[in-house]
Amino acid sequence: MEPFKTITSLAAPLDRVNVDTDQIIPKQFLKRIERSGYGEFLFFDWRRLQEGPSAGDPDPSFVLNNPKYAGAKILIAGKNFGCGSSREHAAWALSDYGFRAVIAPTFADIFFSNAGKNGIVLIRLSEEQVALLLDRAANTPDYKLTVSLENQTLTDDQGFHATFEIDPFRKYCLVEGLDDIGLTLRHASELDKFEAQHDHANWLKPWAETVSA
Question: How many CA atoms does the CB half-sphere of 130 hold within 13 Å?
Fold first, then answer.
């Protein structure tokens, strides 16, 4: 997992509330066995025209199809982002697309956990602050935000400054770039030592002595 310290990036405004995980990554793509490649299908039903002779083509009205947001690593959205089913694929899709941070007033609890484990910083701000950022991202050319995880701050070059809360352990994992596997591997020597002792132990001897007694 890529460490997260400070990023400055274009911010894409997704001015919608209750964005559920089935919209983030529709159910038909959950059959994939790979963990990568989900970015192509992020917000698939919104990114593609669903009817008419051009069905399947990119929908020019959807924000992520607007060239001015190409390469954005920060997403701004409405409240209750990530609601719905608990699929971890939603976090995979956002990460694979390139988003490193999502800003919203509230997030669904399970999505909040999944995102943190996949290198995405979720920033909870007030509805008023989010509304301001949505407006600036929609109407300011080349609008960028800076997220400092180490300082827990969010800023722009127009004077916006906000702090955000994050669990200390989750912050540590994100700053160090540690997912669950990475955390386990930090104890690799201790695990190897335990396995070696386990392999050489005579686990049947105490049982045999008890039976013979």
Answer: 25
